[in-house]
Amino acid sequence: MPNLFQSVSLARESLFSKTGKRSLFEKTYQYLHTSTPSLAKVVAVLYEAGAAAKEPRLLGCKENELGLRKFLEDRGHKYIVMSDKEKLLDQELPDTEVLITTPFHPAYVTAERIAKSPKLRLCVTAGVGSDHVDLHAANKAKITVAEVTGSNVVSVAEHVVMQILALVRNFVPAYTQVIKGEWNVGDIAKDSFDLENKVVGTVGAGRIGYRVLQRLKPFNCKELLYSDYQALSPEMESAVGAKRVTFEELIERCDVITINCPLHDKTRNLFNKQVFDKVKPGVYIVNTARGAIVDRDALVEAVKSGKVRGYAGDVWYPQPAPKDHPWRYMPRHAMTPHYSGTTLDAQKRYADGTKDILERYFDGRPFKPEDLIVHNGEFASKAYVQPEK
Q: One GO MF term, please (predicted)?
């Protein structure tokens, strides 16, 4: 059902279409628009950027508020922005109608939090990846979960290729030598390879995974493989020269594995000790999907043993990663904070996309189907359709 602002807007346009005049109704509309108490409470949980927030294009931080304050307050809504994901958020949730979060500083929307948020109707992920929301609980509560589909795909795909090359070419130890004032070519070259003629595979060939394959094609890899629950079209496979294989075949054959699948019940800890026992010895793994897809301790052991020659990515669990997270200190890694999908270009895309989702919600217009994860008590995205345990 439309809220007051939506009803007034529809009546306003209906009257104008019939009379061609706005004067009297415009005054009434303007009065309601400016005098009505906040129509909806919108809460955004964003990371603090400190001095970096002076860059106005850094829209995804707490200080720059996704550029949404004027848009929301001009419509009469209340907009609260915070970085705290615990006590302060819990205090605000009971009367919050719209919650905005990001994958880069995820506020975990658990079933318990949803139960304490009776007015919550919309959860928006400013970016891509809504696994920080309990989607089953959101469905039961008839809460819509939407994200800005496609906003990060180019940014993440480029990051994947960068980190593949950083591992294969042994970049991090080479860079470390330079900043330490050292020079030992042999120590670096003994673990440096070409990407050409290697077997590279992606677990997941959706919007990001496919773009990774596109960017890998010019490197003349021996084979490009992918494992996914649904096949690419023959035309798409031919365009990148990729072949679909089972997950088991992929992990056994690949010199380089890149993880580009969503996190859900079936992919949580997908890369565990049993999988690491089966991978090709000396494999490189890049994970820019979600940290929880990889078993934390099993990975550390696989890297220390040399079964995994190197690991890179920008995703951790939990986030931010605690100072004692073992991935920070394991050998042969090229990890970064979670920033692959939040370049300044990507931030413009997901800020604009978040605004579009909010406009559609407040105006009572349909959401873009591709942005919906759960809606009307059902899964709207095949990527997250998993049986409830």
A: formate dehydrogenase (NAD+) activity
Active-site annotation holds for 319: yes
For residue 226, list its beta bridge partners: 202, 244
Q: Both 331 and 232 in a single domain?
A: yes
Domain of residue 357, residue span: 37-151+344-384
My answer on whether 71 and 167 are in the same domain is no
Q: Whole-angstrom Cα distance, residue 14 to residue 20?
A: 10
Each residue's pLDDT tens digit, 12-42 = 334 433 444 434 433 333 334 333 345 999 9
Q: Which of 113, 333, 338, 375 is catalytic?
A: 338
SS3 283: strand
* 307 and 349, same domain (yes or no): no
Task: Give 184 or 3, the one with higher predicted confidence.
Answer: 184
* Catalytic-residue membership of 338: yes
Q: Is there a domain that residue 26 lies in?
A: no
Please measure the distance between the N-terminal and C-terminal CA atoms of the chain and give it in whole angstroms.
33
Q: How many CB atoms lie within 10 A of CB 377?
A: 12
User: What is the Cα 275 distance to its own chain's centre?
Assistant: 25
CA distances from 53 to 42, 128, 182, 319, 340 (A): 21, 22, 35, 20, 18
Residues 233 and 327 both lie in one domain: yes
Both 376 and 294 in one domain: the answer is: no
Q: Which of 152, 163, 170, 260 is catalytic?
A: 152
Whole-structure pTM value: 0.84
Same domain, 41 and 86: yes
144 & 200 share domain: no
Give the largest CA-CA distance in the chain: 82
Q: Which of 290, 309, 333, 375 is catalytic?
A: 290
